[in-house]
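Morning, I've got a small favour to ask if you have a moment. I've dropped the whole record in just underneath, so have a look.
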Amino acid sequence: MDRAVTKPDSSKATVMVIGAPIGPSDIPGLCGRAERLMESGVATVICDVAAFEEVDMVVVDALARLQLIMTRDGGELRLSHVSPALRDLLEWSGLDDAFGQIPRIRHGGRRWGTVP
């Protein structure tokens, strides 16, 4: 079945909050949300991942799939509120470059690092 593709409007952005925990069975629903946003013309999805203090490869898999959905039709996925644990896992898996510059977050007034 062909799906209608609306060219994303570069001025449209929205925040998608993902709650934790997620399992493999949650990934299709998240992907469906991203596809509906793209179909509505949203060009940039800012994925709020603040809920993920404990992360695993299911979270990385979900984010990689969301990134694929957004970029295959000219959109963009950005991450916000990335925990140090998620940042480390993205770097370890080699997917950190797929998300561009990932902003570092503060914990207790201390900055975990800076983005170049």
Remarks:
- Residues 1-8, 106-116 have pLDDT under 50 and may be disordered.
- Residues 9-106 form a domain with the Transcription Regulator spoIIAA fold (CATH 3.30.750.24).
